[in-house]
Amino acid sequence: MFDSTLRSKLDPALERLAARLARAGATADQVTIAGLVLGVAAAGAIALHWFWLGLALILISRLCDGLDGAVARITGKTDFGGYLDIVLDFAFYGVIPIGFVLADPGANAVAGAVLVFSFYVNGASFLAYAIMAERHGLSSESHGEKSIFFTTGLAEATETIAVFVLMCLVPHWFAAIAWVFAAICLYTAVSRIALASRTLR
Question: Which ranges does the record mark as transmembrane (predicted)?
Answer without folding.
Answer: 33-60, 80-103, 109-132, 173-195
